[in-house]
Structures are given as C-alpha cells and as structure tokens.
C-alpha cells in the first residue's frame, strides 16, 4: 500500500548535515521530515571522525612507549599490543558516541522520521522505497559521501576494504596495503603501522594529505617515509589475488621490484558525493560535470529552485563542522524559501591527525597568485619546546598579502598543529595583518613560538 506525506520541508539523509537541517527547518516554524536509508548514527560517529581518532589514540600510546629511551626512561620488557583489546575499545567508545546521536534521533517525533532511500520524481516530489510519496514544498539534500573505489582494485575480491570495514574488525590483521595517501589513508595507515600491522602506503602523482605547498609536501613525504613504507608516487607492477591473500608487485623506494602478500587492501582513494541515485535528472536543477547540483555557496540553494544541498553531498568542504553549519543554513533557507539569506561561513580550517599533524588554514598555496604574497617559514627541528618534548619534526609556511600585510593562510606539518590551526583560523576570521598577529602574546616556552618565528619571517619580507 502506498502512502503520501504532505510536508513543508523534506530532508534527505539523517547525518550531521541532515539532522541540523531538520532542526533548523522546525525552529523556523515549518513542518519537516528527515528521511534516512541507512543506519542512524552519522558517518562521523559510526565510521569516520570518532573511530579513526580512537584507533589513532591507541597507536599514539604504543608509539610513545617505544620512544622513551631518549629521555633516559626505559621500558624494560616487551610492549605487547593486543589487537582484540585495541579494537574492543575502538568499538565500545565508538558505540558510545553513536549512542548519543541515536538518542537525539529517538527524540524526533515518529511522524517526522521516514525510513528508506529517497529519490526525486520532480523538484518537490520524492519517492521513498517505491511505497511512500512525499510532497514537500522544499527539499534539502544531505546525503553525504561514500568511498570512491577504483575499478582496478576489484581484483582483490573480498580482501578489498574501505574505512567502514576497518572499524568492524574484532582483531588487528597482520598486513594491510593502503592505496591513497590522502587524509584517510595517512591517518589509518600510520595508526595501523604503529599498532604493529605491516603497512605499505601507495599513492599516485605524489600527493600527501591535503598539502598543496611543494616544500611542505616534500618534507611531509620524508617524515612519513622514515617511519613506514610510504610512497605517494608508487610504481605498481601487478595486483591480484593468491589464495586468501592480496598480492602486489611494486617497485620499492630502493628501486627494487618486490612482491608481497597482504591480509587486506584498504582503498582510501577519495570520496564521492551520494547524488548519483537521487534521480536528479527528474529535477530542473543544473548539474556540474561530476553530476553534483550547482549551488550557491552562501545560501546552499540550487539555482532558484526550492532544493538545497548541504554537507559532503555538495563536495566542497567535506568536514564535520562544515556539514553542521551547512545543514543549519540549508534548513533555515528551506524554511525561509523563497527569501533565502547567506549562512555563516567560517574561516577554513583542516587538520590531519597524523603524527606530526598536518594542518591548513585559509587560502591554500595552490590558490595564491605568484607575486601577490610573501611566505614566512619556520622549521620545528630547532624550535625550543618542540625539541624539549622530542616532537621537533615539522615545517610551516604562512602566507601574507604582499600589499596589505593581511594574513591569508598557512600550510604545515608539525607538532600540535590542531591547536595552532585554531589560533590561525581565528586570526584569519578577524581579518588580522601579520603585524597585528605579532602584537598578540606568545608565552614561553611553547610551540606557538615557532609560529611567531614564521610570522616574523613574513613580516620581515613584507617590509624588505
Ligand atoms: C574515516 C573518516 C574520518 C573522518 N575524520 C574526520 C575528522 O576527523 N574531522 C572532520 O571534520 N571530518 C572528518 N571526516 C569527514 C566527516 O565524517 C564528514 O564530513 C561528515 O560526516 C559529513 O556529514 P554529512 O551529514 O554530510 O553526511 P553523513 O553523516 O554521511 O550523512 C548522510 C546520510 O544520508 C543517508 N542517505 C544517503 N542517500 C540517501 C537517500 N537517497 N535517501 C535517504 N538517506 C540517504 C546516508 O545513509 C547517511 O546516513 C571523516 C570521514 C571519514 C570517512
Ligand atoms: N582529519 C580530518 O578532518 C579528516 C579525516 C578523514 C577524512 N576527512 C575527509 O574525508 C575526505 C576524503 O578523504 P580521503 O582520504 O578518502 O580523500 P583525499 O582526497 O584526501 O585523498 C585521496 C588520495 O588518494 C589518492 N588516489 C586516488 N586514486 C588513487 C589510486 N588509484 N591509487 C592510489 N592513490 C590514489 C589521491 O591522489 C589522494 O592522495 C577528506 O577530503 C576530508 O575532507 C577528514
């Protein structure tokens, strides 16, 4: 039997963006439903931000234990990593975080929740699971993204996995080949290696995380390659399956051809927005070359239509806090439609939870026009506090507008980058110049004194 629901706002996807959109629509006095096809709990809590950071925390504990001798502190006896206990904590704590989200969903009235996969019949009509028709005067697309798995990797059969599968493990495997030295590959690859898993990390075209500054990228490549097999420009000769193992022949960093067997191959080669099966061809909205709706970055409206798109689905800034902000903007504008307003856009910030951490704030090097900016630099190798703590690996570039002295952005790898990134993002959002940033306090001895060195270098170049 088919059912029809008439509603002001329909939100597709109960992830971070979708839940924020639903709440914003309700707050603005509209009736709304949120449609979810998969499990409740959000990508971030179930298979993203939180379980990955839990795995990294275990890896950091193991790494710290192995590196105490330089301080004269010796761990006598064996360091034993119990893979089952590691995964048990990852999953237990992950389930706790998921539980918070699920409880939030339980508080949404039953009549506002629709279970099933939605697709467009036209701009304002959705069909869910072929048996529920939703007539909504406005729609928010908040369908998230999924791992993009290159076709060639399917030769590995059931040895091929994505991030979701890692967080379902009961025990750590013996070996994993990771394809993709982006954010996910770096975080998970390094963590698994530190937990005693044999890891080989292969990339294409030399990319390292999100870095676009060639000097920082090559420093980062050197640092990671010192720790485990890390080749962002790998030469893979053969990929296949032998028995229950994946088999890969590649050229190692010494130029030798080697063949190795792996328990798993983790594809971390990027993510694709979940828009392909939405029936967008039935709407009047314009799509870009990748099939993603063309939308206004400030209002999240698709053209002049009553359709809005938020979070990973729009493929611009696939990060948790951006999904939450965008969801709120999209839900608010769906409620206000046709009188849409710009939503909050914060200074851009990105952090990779590798060790050393990688961070990006504001404009990326690749987005800057040659001759229009100066670069301030600091190496963390001789930076006081970093050396004290033996965390003295890192290189930072800060960019400043050559005419106005305004801080534009930064890319770096180094200790406690997650904290420094916030200082820089807040400075950027306040529109500070390099001189104004140098007028701020720097305690002694802290890692931020390294940032001050980079800012002073930029200041000197601005005034040369
Ligand atoms: C391993 C990993 C680590 C990460 N770490 C971080 C981090 O440390 N920090 C950070 O900021 N970000 C991190 N991210 C990114 C972050 O998780 C995402 O940016 C964020 O979760 C996106 O939220 P969303 O609401 O857009 O999508 P989601 O939370 O994925 O929600 C989309 C929902 O839509 C549903 N859906 C899809 N299609 C339909 C349909 N047709 N009908 C009904 N429902 C549908 C899906 O089932 C899903 O529940 C990480 C991501 C991964 C994968
Ligand atoms: N700490 C965080 O905030 C965090 C953590 C994880 C994920 N995320 C989000 O998730 C998004 C997706 O992460 P991701 O790591 O999947 O994507 P990504 O775009 O960061 O990295 C993909 C990498 O795979 C490489 N690649 C592509 N095809 C390949 C192939 N055939 N063989 C080998 N390498 C190949 C690319 O060159 C790139 O280096 C990120 O952009 C980020 O926004 C954020």
Describe the overall structure.
The protein is an alpha/beta fold and 464 residues long. The protein folds into three domains: 210 residues, FAD/NAD(P)-binding domain, CATH 3.50.50.60; 119 residues, 3-Layer(bba) Sandwich (FAD/NAD(P)-binding domain); 114 residues, FAD/NAD-linked reductase, C-terminal dimerisation domain (Enolase-like, domain 1, 2-Layer Sandwich). 31% of the residues lie in helices and 25% in strands. The chain contains twelve helices and 22 strands. Strands 1, 2, 3, 4, 5, 6 and 17 form a seven-stranded mixed beta sheet that branches. Strand 18 and strand 19 form a beta hairpin. Helix 3 runs antiparallel to helix 4. The termini are far apart. Bound molecules: flavin-adenine dinucleotide and nicotinamide-adenine-dinucleotide. The site of flavin-adenine dinucleotide has 34 residues, from helix 1, strand 2, helix 2, helix 3 and helix 8. Nicotinamide-adenine-dinucleotide (NAD) binds next to helix 6 and strand 18.
Count of β-strands: 22
Query: What is the number of helices?
Result: 12
CATH class of the largest domain: Alpha Beta
| Average pLDDT for all residues | 98
- Net shape: globular
Please estimate the helix content.
Answer: 25-40%
Report on the biggest sheet. Answer: 7 strands, mixed
CATH architecture of the largest domain: 3-Layer(bba) Sandwich
Work out the oligomeric state of the chains in this entry: single chain
CATH superfamily of the largest domain: FAD/NAD(P)-binding domain
C-alpha end-to-end distance: 76 Å
What is the CA-atom radius of gyration, in angstroms?
A: 24 Å
Ligand roster: flavin-adenine dinucleotide, nicotinamide-adenine-dinucleotide
Q: What structural category characterises the helix and strand content?
A: alpha/beta
Instruction: Domain count, please report it.
Output: 3
CATH topology of the largest domain: FAD/NAD(P)-binding domain
In the predicted model, the low-confidence regions spanning at least 5 consecutive residues are: none
């Amino acid at each position: 039997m088919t059912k029809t629901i008439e509603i002001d706002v329909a939100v597709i996807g109960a992830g971070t963006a979708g839940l924020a959109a639903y709440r914003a629509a309700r707050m603005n006095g509209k009736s709304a439903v949120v449609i979810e096809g998969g499990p409740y709990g959000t990508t971030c809590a179930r298979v993203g931000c939180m379980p990955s950071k839990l795995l990294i925390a275990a890896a950091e504990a193991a790494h710290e234990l192995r590196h105490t001798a330089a301080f004269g502190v010796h761990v006598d006896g064996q360091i034993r990593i119990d893979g089952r206990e590691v995964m048990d904590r990852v999953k237990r704590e992950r389930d706790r975080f998921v539980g918070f989200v699920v409880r939030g969903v339980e508080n949404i009235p039953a009549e506002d929740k629709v279970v099933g996969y939605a697709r467009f019949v036209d701009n304002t009509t959705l069909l869910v699971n072929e048996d529920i028709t939703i007539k909504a005067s406005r729609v928010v697309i908040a369908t998230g993204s999924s791992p993009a798995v290159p076709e060639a990797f399917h030769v590995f059969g059931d040895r091929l996995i994505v991030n979701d599968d890692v967080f379902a493990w009961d025990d750590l495997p013996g070996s994993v080949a990771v394809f993709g030295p982006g954010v996910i590959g770096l975080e998970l690859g390094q963590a698994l290696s530190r937990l005693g898993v044999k890891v080989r990390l292969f990339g294409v075209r030399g990319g390292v995380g999100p870095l676009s500054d060639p000097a920082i990228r090559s420093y980062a490549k050197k640092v990671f390659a010192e720790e485990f097999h890390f080749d962002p420009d790998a030469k893979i000769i053969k990929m296949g399956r032998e028995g229950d193992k994946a088999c890969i022949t590649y050229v190692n960093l010494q130029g030798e051809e080697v063949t190795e067997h792996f328990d798993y191959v983790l594809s971390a080669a990027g993510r694709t927005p979940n828009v392909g099966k939405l029936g967008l061809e039935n709407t009047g909205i314009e799509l870009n070359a990748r099939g993603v709706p063309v939308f206004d970055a400030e209002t999240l409206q698709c053209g002049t239509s009553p359709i809005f798109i938020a979070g990973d689905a729009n493929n611009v800034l696939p990060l948790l806090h951006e999904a939450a902000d965008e969801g709120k903007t999209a839900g608010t504008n769906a409620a206000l439609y046709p009188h849409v307003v710009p939503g909050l856009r914060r200074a851009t910030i990105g952090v990779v939870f590798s060790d050393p951490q990688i961070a990006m704030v504001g404009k990326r090097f690749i987005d800057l026009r040659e001759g229009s900016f100066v670069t301030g630099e600091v190496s963390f190798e001789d930076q006081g506090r970093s050396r004290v703590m033996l965390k003295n690996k890192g290189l930072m570039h800060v960019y400043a507008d050559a005419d106005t002295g305004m801080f534009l952005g930064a890319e770096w790898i180094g200790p406690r980058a997650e904290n420094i990134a916030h200082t820089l993002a807040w400075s950027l959002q306040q529109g500070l110049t390099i001189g104004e940033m140098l007028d701020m306090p720097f305690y002694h001895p802290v890692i931020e004194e390294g940032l001050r060195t980079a800012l002073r270098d930029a200041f000197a170049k601005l005034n040369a």
